[in-house]
Amino acid sequence: MIPVIGITVCIDAGRLIRPNVDYLYLGRRYAQAVAAAGAMPVLLSPEAKPADCLSLCSGLVISGGGDLPRHFAASRDEATLREAEHLDRISWEREVLTLFAQANRPVLGVCYGMQLMNLHFGGSLYRSVTEEERGILDHGGGGRSQKHEVERSAESVLLESLPKRFLSNSSHGQAVREVAPGFVVSARADDGVIEAIENAAAKLFGVEWHPESDATGSAVYGKFASLVQGVTKPP
Description:
By secondary structure, the chain is an alpha/beta fold. The protein has helices spanning 28-36, 50-56, 87-102, 112-120, 129-132, 217-229, and strands spanning 4-8, 10-13, 22-25, 40-44, 59-62, 107-110, 125-126, 146-152, 165-170, 175-176, 184-189, 194-199, 204-207.
């Protein structure tokens, strides 16, 4: 049977689409990339119970989003974040992520999704990597994309079919600082910024760029879908 991959969505609390109206939204390319990889994309709303998401989906994609607090405990004291992610989304995705990790179901975090995964499992973030480190390349962000080269590690499971060096399409101002326990760095940009992490044994993977929007999409989503295909769900 075709595997079902859930994709989380963004929340717009009346800021972008229409004033004073809450919307859920997602770039269509995520669903297109999952479908092209041979899986069924299902968009997951924060109104869905995390346990029901686990029952429905064999794999999970945590899509891109806004800025995260440096530490989750400080999330209600982060007025200085330029484009803060909605707190309802953050708390709900953490619940879903916990359940998928406990069930050993594959999870792919994209951009914000990778940062959320790293923080959730005990890592840390640069709130703004260009302000906290010198000599940083342009990684885009704020709705703006920027292409730059990335070098993968030889041991990467998710990125194994990509060349050693490849061009990525990035759009992030934040970045992983300290990698969470159990994870390894599987790709970096030339400025040293961490561009991918993974805990292959736990089937947890993160990429800082947007493979659904560049030439790496078929390799990244294809490999992820193959990992999801091998999941055996309990009856």
